[in-house]
Amino acid sequence: MPNNQRFPAEWEPQSAVLLAWPHEGTDWAERLAGVERTYVALVAAITRFQPALVCVADAGLRERAAGLLKAVGVDLGRVRFFEVDYDDTWLRDSGPITLREGGGFRLLDFHFTAWGGKFEAGLDDQIVGKLHASGLLKPCAHQRIDFALEGGGIETDGAGTLLSTWTCLHERHPDKSREEITATLEKSLVQSRTLWLDHGYLEGDDTDAHIDTLARFAAPDAIVFQACDDPADGHYAELQAMAAEIAALRQANGQPYRLFPLPWARPILDEGRRLAASYANFLIVNGAVLMPAYGDVADGAAAAVLAQAFPGREIVQIDCRPLIWQNGSLHCVTMQLPEGLLA
C-alpha cells in the first residue's frame, strides 16, 4: 500500500464538517420546518468547535439558512456556504472520503447509487467532483472510483483497520466474493485488514445495515456499539449476535477491544412505521461528540456511555427525531473534513 497515504480516524483533528441544507426540492419537503430546526441545532453545535461547510441549492436557500442560524446566535464567520445541486442531504454517503497523502489530501469519489438504486442520485453522485473544483478546499487530488460505497458503510481506526457489515457491501456487489470486496476496500482506502460483522440491523434503516448505525471505533482499541436488552423486541436476537461477534474481534496486536454497549431506545413509530433510532450514529468533532437524542429516557444513559468512551470530550445532544423520519440520523447527514483541507 502507498506509504504516504492514510485514512484518518474521525477523532483526529478536523477543519470542518460538511452538510447539505434541506429544502423543498428534497424528500424533506413534507416536514421541512421540523428538520430545519434540527439542522439549526446541528450547525450551532458544530460551530462551537469548528467551522461548518454547508451545501445550499441556490442563493435564496443560502440566505434562508444564514438567517435561521443568525437568529439563534450562530457565528456566521464559522459557516461557509457552497452552492451546488443535490438530490438529498445524506452527505455521509455522497460526500468525499478523504485520505491524507504526504502533506496533502486525496478526495476519494466512490460511485454513489443511493443505497443500491433505491432513490435518484444523479446530482448527489457529482458532489465530490464539484467540491474539488469549487476553490473551497486547498489544492488536493481527486480520484473517481467506479465502486459503489458509502461513507456510512465503513469505519476506520486510523491505523489500518477497517470495520464494516457484510450485509451492506454484499448487497451493493452481489457478484463479488468477500475476498474481492475486501481487496478493493483495502487497496482504495489504504487499510491493512478488514473486520466484517455478519449480524446487526435496524428496522426502518434503508442502507442495508450501515456500520455507522451499529458499531463505531472510539479509539484504536475501543468500539462503541448499539445494544438491545429487551428480549421482547424484534431486534434482540440479531443485536445480541452482533454483540457476540464484536466481543470476539481482536485488535491488530491480538488483544480484545474495550467495548461500550449503548442503551436501547424505546420504539419510535411514525404512522405505524418503526424508525431507526440508533445512538451509534454520533458525530465526533474537535473536542466533542455530537449525539443523536430521541426524547427517550435512554438519552441520558447513552450520553454517559459516550462520555466514558470519549474521555475529555464534551457530549452534546441533538434532537434527531425529525431526521429518523427519513431513515437516517446525525452521522448520516454529516461528513468531517480533516484538519488542513479547508482553504
Automatic annotation (TrEMBL):
Cross-referenced SUPFAM superfamilies: Pentein (SSF55909)
Keyword Hydrolase: yes
InterPro entries tied to this protein: Peptidyl-Arg-deiminase_porph (IPR007466)
The protein's name in its UniProt record: Agmatine deiminase family protein
GO molecular function: agmatine deiminase activity; protein-arginine deiminase activity
Pfam family name, one: PAD_porph
Source organism per UniProt: Arenimonas terrae
GO biological process terms, semicolon-separated: putrescine biosynthetic process
Keywords for this protein: Hydrolase
